[in-house]
């Protein structure tokens, strides 16, 4: 497992070493250039000062007895004097003999496998040459560069310890947060505290808290679904069991047929309840992040009207549609289920001979769907509660699960829309008005906040 502390330590130390070596290298070349300039000046002055001293009186002693003022042993400068009149060479004892220069001034010569920098000056018949091994200059420059690098090398252990302590101190909040998470039980989804955390870690903890919130919502939805399913299935299953018992006790075929008919109705109601419970469960909290497609609401309205017309005809209810152009980004199956649920709800509550109208349009930049009927309507004081799960308005005689409008509300929320309940056709009944962001505007960043209007 990769350690952030170790990685930061090694990276920083390597960066310091790289910076130190880069600085030392730059110092070496800079010092070498400066030493070259300085020592070239020294060579020239040595040769010229010696030339000036012998210009009026030729030397009568060997060169080893000559004294060069300002000469330093560490510079290792050698001097030789060539007398062209007598073809003789004077030089210090032990000093290598340098070839005669081609002319006055600076030059480079090879002597005993080494490169020497020379400066020559002519004084009458004498040719005075001062020379220096280039290794001296390289050595002086390297010494200067090492003096730059040496303190850094000595400080590296102390820097490593300081970095270890600072990184450890910086990672302490992360380790504390990790221990806090490790101590939690699997069902504990409360937000983590961000008090005292650095900004970099606080952003991570905030992201974790957001995930915990969504997990809590998902878990709550699952628990609510399990509770609702257990509660709502208990009654129809009990009724089915009683119908079976009555069928077993029936004395005549007519009584048995009546019990079987009621049993079939009970099975249909239980099946519808299970289907709607599963629909609610599939509309999970992250459903809005699933891929969306472009939906032509006008075509969808016509399709739902055609599908529901035969069912409405059994109660002699007329279904009409007014499909005007309107587009929407969304999940087509969910939108179709939403309109179907509202239409089915209207058919069940509208009395025989009633009228239902489904419309689509674009209003004030919004895509709008309406499902209208002339049934008994919904009292204004109950309109804010009809979208709650298993809620059924008082005085309702029509059978139902109380889940149809809850499914509608969930689908509207997923698509960032709004739903409103208004008075219906002919001055009575109900209008469900669904408004959605227009095509291309249903992303989470531009979505409208879903609300219900009473």
TrEMBL record:
Any one Gene Ontology MF annotation carried by this entry is: phosphorelay sensor kinase activity
> Which residues does UniProt assign to the signal peptide?
1-26
**Where is each HAMP domain found?**
168-220
Major location (coarse)? membrane
All residue ranges annotated as the Histidine kinase domain in the record: 228-440
Localization per Swiss-Prot or TrEMBL: Membrane
Q: Which PROSITE patterns is this protein grouped with?
A: HAMP (PS50885), HIS_KIN (PS50109), TAT (PS51318)
Which EC number(s) does UniProt give?
2.7.13.3
Provide GO CC annotations from the record.
Answer: plasma membrane
**Catalytic activity of the protein:** ATP + protein L-histidine = ADP + protein N-phospho-L-histidine
- Alphabetized UniProt keyword annotations: ATP-binding, Kinase, Membrane, Nucleotide-binding, Phosphoprotein, Signal, Transferase, Transmembrane, Transmembrane helix, Two-component regulatory system
Q: What class of enzyme is it?
A: transferase
Q: How does it sit in the membrane?
A: Multi-pass membrane protein
- Locate the transmembrane regions by residue number: 154-174
Q: Which InterPro entries match?
A: 2CSK_N (IPR013727), HAMP_dom (IPR003660), HATPase_C_sf (IPR036890), HATPase_dom (IPR003594), His_kinase_dom (IPR005467), HisK_dim/P_dom (IPR003661), HisK_dim/P_sf (IPR036097), Sig_transdc_His_kin-like_C (IPR004358)
What is the name of this protein?
histidine kinase
Natural source organism: Sutterella seckii
């Amino acid at each position: 497992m990769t350690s952030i502390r170790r990685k930061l330590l090694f990276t920083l130390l390597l960066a310091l070493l790289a910076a130190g070596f880069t600085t030392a290298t730059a110092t070496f070349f800079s010092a070498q250039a400066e030493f070259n300039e300085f020592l070239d000046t020294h060579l020239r002055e040595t040769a010229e000062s010696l030339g000036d001293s012998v210009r009026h009186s030729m030397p009568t002693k060997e060169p080893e007895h000559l004294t060069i003022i300002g000469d330093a042993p560490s510079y290792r400068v050698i001097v030789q004097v060539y007398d062209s009149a007598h073809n003789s060479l004077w030089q210090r004892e032990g000093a290598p003999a340098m070839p005669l220069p081609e002319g006055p001034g600076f030059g480079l010569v090879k002597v005993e496998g080494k490169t020497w920098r020379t400066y020559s000056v002519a004084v009458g018949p004498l040719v005075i040459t001062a020379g220096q091994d280039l290794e001296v200059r390289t050595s002086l420059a390297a010494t200067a560069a090492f003096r730059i690098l040496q303190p850094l090398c000595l400080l590296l252990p102390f820097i490593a310890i300081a970095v270890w302590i600072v990184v450890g101190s910086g990672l302490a909040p992360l380790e504390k947060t990790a221990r806090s998470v490790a101590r939690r039980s699997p069902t504990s989804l409360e937000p983590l505290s961000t008090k005292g955390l650095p900004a970099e870690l606080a952003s991570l903890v905030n992201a974790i808290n957001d995930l915990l919130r969504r997990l809590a919502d998902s878990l709550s939805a699952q628990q609510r679904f399990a509770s609702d399913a257990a509660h709502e299935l208990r009654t129809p299953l009990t009724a089915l069991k009683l119908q079976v018992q009555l069928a077993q006790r029936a004395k005549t075929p007519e009584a048995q047929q009546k019990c079987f008919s009621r049993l079939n109705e009970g099975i249909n109601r239980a099946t519808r309840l299970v289907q709607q419970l599963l629909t609610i469960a599939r509309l999970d909290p992250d459903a809005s992040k699933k891929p969306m497609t472009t939906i032509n609401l006008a075509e969808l309205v016509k399709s739902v009207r055609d599908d529901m017309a035969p069912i409405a005809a059994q109660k002699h209810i007329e279904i009409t549609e007014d499909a005007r152009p309107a587009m929407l980004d969304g999940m087509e199956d969910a939108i179709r289920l939403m309109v179907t649920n509202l239409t089915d709800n209207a058919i069940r509550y509208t009395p025989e001979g009633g009228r239902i109208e489904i419309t689509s349009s674009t209003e004030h930049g919004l895509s709008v769907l309406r499902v209208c009927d002339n049934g008994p309507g919904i009292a204004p004081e109950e309109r804010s509660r009809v979208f709650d799960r298993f809620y059924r308005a008082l005085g309702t005689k029509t059978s139902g699960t109380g889940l149809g409008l809850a499914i509608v509300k969930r689908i509207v929320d997923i698509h960032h829309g709004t739903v409103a309940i208004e008075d219906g056709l002919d001055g009575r009944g109900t209008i469900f008005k669904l408004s959605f962001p227009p095509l291309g505007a249903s992303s989470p960043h531009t979505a409208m906040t879903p609300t219900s209007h009473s």
